[in-house]
Specification:
This protein is an alpha/beta fold. Helices cover 31% and strands 18% of the residues. The protein has helices at residues 3-24, 41-46, 70-76, 93-102, 106-109, 130-133, 144-150, 184-196, 212-220, 225-247, 299-314, 355-360, 404-412; strands spanning 50-56, 80-82, 85-86, 115-118, 123-126, 155-158, 174-176, 205-210, 254-259, 265-266, 272-274, 284-288, 292-297, 319-323, 342-346, 351-353, 368-369, 383-386, 394-396, 399-400. Strands 7-6-8-1-9-18-2-19 form an 8-stranded mixed beta sheet, with helices on both faces. Helix 8 (184-196) packs parallel to helix 10 and helix 9 packs antiparallel against helix 10. The two termini are 13 Å apart.
C-alpha cells in the first residue's frame, strides 16, 4: 500500500474505535451524511485535511484519566498525546495562547503577560481591557490564521487570544469577540458550521476556546469536586464534538489538535509572602500579580528594593528575585522592551501579596493558581492530536507550546512564518 492508502486505512480504524466507544457510552451517533466511501481515492488524495484547534484553559496534563475523562482517555489511544505540554514563561493564559498561535516565545511576540505596560506606546494592557485586547499594536509575530489566509486557506477563530485584533491589518474569514455567556455546545456548533459549510466562507482551519475548567480550578483547587465536575464537562463536550463531526461528514478529513495553556497548583493562606514586609510598595508600580510578580521601579529606589528582596531570598523567603537583565535565559522573557524592571517569582504553591490585601480578603488565597516556573510538572498542560494525518497510539515526551504552530502549518500544508518551533518535535506521530 502507498503511504496515503495507509493513512486512509488508519483513519477508518480510528473513527471505528471512536464510534464503538460512543455507543458504549450510550451516546447517539448520527450516521455520516458523506463517508470516505462516497469519494474516489483520487479525490481523497486531492482533498486538504482540515484542522480544528481546541483549548481547554487550565487543563493540567495529569487531569487526563480513565476516572474523570474516560472518553478523552479512550480517544487518546487512537491518536497522539504528549506526557505534558510545557508552557512558556509566565505560565499564564494570554502569553501561552498567543505563543501557540505564533510559535514564538514572549520576548519575540510581545505578549509577556496577562498584564503589561508599554512605555513607548504609553499604554497598559490587561485581559479585561477590551480596547487594548483589540489593539493590534500589542501583538507581534504572525498568528496561524494569518499564515493560513495569506496562502489561500480560510480560517475561523472562536475567542483565541489575538484573534480579536486586526494583526497585520488582517482578519480571518470568521472571528468572534469574546463572549463568556455563549454556551459550550453553541461554540462547537458554530465552529463546525464554519468547517462544514459548502459556501464560499467554508474554512479549513478553526479554533475554539473554553475557560470553565480554569475558572473552577482557580476557585476550588485541583482536586475539588467542582473541578472534577468541570473535567467531566470537558469529556462530555469532546464526545459531543466527535458525534457532530461524524454527523456532518467531517470525521475523515479533520485533524483535531487539543491543547491547554498551563496547569494548576493549590494555594492557601498558610503559604504567603507579604511583599510590604521587605520593600516600600508605595514606591513601586505593580504590573502583574502572583506568583510571577512584575514591578517597575523608579531608578532612585530600584537597586535598594532589589537588594532588600535579594537579602530576603537568601534568608529563606520562598521566592526568587531578578533584575530584568538577570532573568534566566531559559525563560525567553527578558529581551523585550515591555519586560519590567524586576521579576519576583514565588516558589511552587506560594502567593506573593500584601498585608492590606490579606486583611481585606479573609478567603484569599485559596483554590488554585498558575504562573509558576514552567518546569514544574504541575504547570504542564495537556496535548492530544487525532485525525487522518496522525499516527494512532503514539506518545511524545513533554515539549514546549511554541512547537504547536509548526504542527498546525504542516497539517494544513502551508509554509510557516518565522517562528521558534521545530516540526521535528512531532517525529513519530505524523505520516510521511
Amino acid at each position: 500500500k502507498t503511504m496515503r492508502d495507509r493513512r486512509i486505512h488508519e483513519s477508518g480504524k480510528y473513527m471505528f474505535s471512536v464510534g464503538v466507544y460512543l455507543l458504549i457510552s450510550l451516546l447517539l451517533v448520527t450516521c455520516s451524511t458523506q463517508s470516505s466511501g462516497d469519494l474516489s481515492q483520487q479525490e481523497l488524495v486531492q482533498a486538504r485535511s482540515k484542522v480544528l484547534l481546541i483549548s481547554f484553559d487550565g487543563f493540567r496534563a495529569d487531569y487526563l484519566s480513565s476516572e474523570h475523562t474516560p472518553f478523552l482517555q479512550e480517544l487518546s489511544k487512537n491518536g497522539a498525546r504528549s506526557e505534558g505540554l510545557i508552557p512558556v514563561f509566565p505560565s499564564k493564559t494570554f502569553p501561552n495562547h498567543y505563543a501557540i498561535a505564533v510559535g514564538l516565545y514572549p520576548e519575540n511576540n510581545g505578549i509577556i503577560g496577562n498584564s503589561m505596560v508599554d512605555t513607548v506606546m504609553g499604554k497598559s494592557y490587561s485581559l479585561g481591557d477590551r480596547e487594548q485586547v483589540e489593539n493590534p499594536n500589542w501583538y507581534e509575530g504572525e498568528p496561524i490564521w494569518n499564515t493560513a489566509e495569506k496562502q489561500g486557506v480560510r480560517a475561523g477563530t472562536m475567542f483565541w487570544v489575538g484573534s480579536e485584533a486586526p494583526i497585520q491589518d488582517m482578519r480571518p474569514t470568521h472571528w468572534k469577540s469574546y463572549d463568556g455567556t455563549l454556551p459550550d455546545s453553541a461554540r462547537i456548533d458554530m465552529v463546525l458550521a464554519w468547517l462544514g459549510s459548502d459556501s464560499s466562507s467554508e474554512v479549513d482551519f478553526a479554533t475554539v476556546y473554553f475557560s470553565f475548567l480554569d475558572s473552577q480550578g482557580h476557585r476550588y483547587g485541583t482536586d475539588a469536586p467542582q473541578t472534577i465536575k468541570a473535567l467531566q464537562r470537558v469529556d462530555t463536550l469532546m464526545s459531543y464534538l466527535m458525534q457532530q463531526l461524524a454527523s456532518k461528514g467531517l470525521d475523515q478529513e479533520t485533524n483535531i489538535v487539543l491543547v491547554s495553556d498551563h496547569g494548576m497548583h493549590n494555594v492557601s493562606r498558610e503559604r504567603v509572602v507579604r511583599l510590604d514586609s521587605f520593600i516600600d510598595i508605595d514606591r513601586v508600580r505593580w504590573i502583574s500579580g502572583s506568583p510571577s510578580v512584575t514591578l517597575n521601579i523608579d531608578p532612585s529606589y530600584r537597586m535598594q528594593a532589589y537588594q532588600e528582596l535579594r537579602k530576603a531570598q537568601e534568608n529563606g523567603a520562598p521566592f526568587n528575585v531578578y533584575m530584568k537583565q538577570d532573568i534566566p535565559e531559559r525563560f525567553r522573557y527578558k529581551n523585550h522592551d515591555r519586560t519590567p524592571d524586576l521579576l519576583l517569582l514565588a516558589n511552587l504553591g506560594y502567593t506573593i501579596t500584601t498585608t492590606d490585601r490579606l486583611d481585606s480578603r479573609p478567603n484569599f488565597p485559596s483554590g488554585g493558581a498558575h504562573g509558576y516556573d514552567p518546569t514544574h510538572p504541575e504547570m504542564h498542560a495537556v496535548f492530544m492530536a487525532i485525525g487522518p494525518d496522525i499516527v494512532p497510539g503514539s506518545v511524545l515526551p513533554p515539549f514546549e507550546v511554541v512547537h504547536v504552530y509548526e504542527l498546525l502549518t504542516h497539517l494544513l500544508g502551508i509554509a510557516p512564518a518565522p517562528n521558534d518551533g521545530n516540526l521535528e518535535t512531532f517525529e513519530g506521530i505524523l505520516y510521511d
